[in-house]
Amino acid sequence: MEFAGEIWYWRGPAPWYFITVPDEESAYFEAESNFVTYGWGMIPVTAEIGASVWDTSMFPKDGRYILPVKAAVRRAEDLDDGDVPTVRLRLRS
After folding, report:
1. Cα dihedral sign for 9, 69, 88, 30?
2. Which residue from 1, 64, 67, 79 could staple onto 74, CB 3.0 to 4.6 Å apart?
3. Which of the four CATH numbers 3.40.50.11270, 3.90.420.10, 2.40.30.170, 2.40.30.100 does domain 2-91 have?
């Protein structure tokens, strides 16, 4: 699955960068979640941005899923808050 999404910064007690998965793609992952989730709605995925590939888990927020974007990926792909990279996701089991 491929989409473009804006990187945003969450300034909570454990600050992190995320990309919100669009509605249509979130609906697909929601439909598949019973087969792969390991609790709290977390969905394991392999994510790709540019040449960077990493295993992570998305989690539900406000009716969609959000994808955490590691600092190493942001540095390697020269990304920051507000950038809109193309993201590729594959479900992991």
Report:
1. negative
2. 79
3. 2.40.30.100
Distance CA 18, CA 5 (A): 9
Q: Which amino acid is at 10?
A: W
Under DSSP, is residue 41 helix (H, G, I), strand (E, B) or coil? coil
pLDDT by residue, tens only, the chain of 93 residues: 999 999 999 988 878 999 999 999 999 988 887 777 777 788 999 999 999 999 999 999 999 999 999 999 999 999 999 999 999 999 997
Distance CA 42, CA 52 (A): 21
State the burial class of residue 75 (Cβ atoms within 10 Å of its Cβ: 0-12, 13-18, 19+).
exposed
Whole-prediction pTM value?
0.91
